[in-house]
């Protein structure tokens, strides 16, 4: 049952959250490109929590793939992952608006939009999980 469409959505969400943050910058300014892992060495807790939330989202997506026998738990973990990505998106927007040297030239990288893409994939996965659950319930009704 790992070959279901929601597993593909969850795998893509995990790859985007956990893998692409190594290669794609969040934003760039006069100091150079800033990647998610560079935020571990920052001074504030908010900045240190961003890479942790990316990894938590990736781990939760990968764990959710292998819970295919427990669709209700899969659905709940998908919603929790959506909440984590909404918090992550809020933190990224907050930090991008309060960047030091924002008056200088800075541009946002594609990494700022990763939580939006992951949220979209997780919504699609939850929709497919719900569809499977409804199908199983309808078959149980016929017995």
UniProtKB/TrEMBL annotation:
The keyword Transmembrane helix applies. It comes from the Bacteria. Keywords: Membrane, Transmembrane, Transmembrane helix. InterPro entries: DUF4293. The chain crosses the membrane at residues 7-29, 49-68, 80-97, 109-129. This is Uncharacterized protein DUF4293. It comes from Tenacibaculum adriaticum.
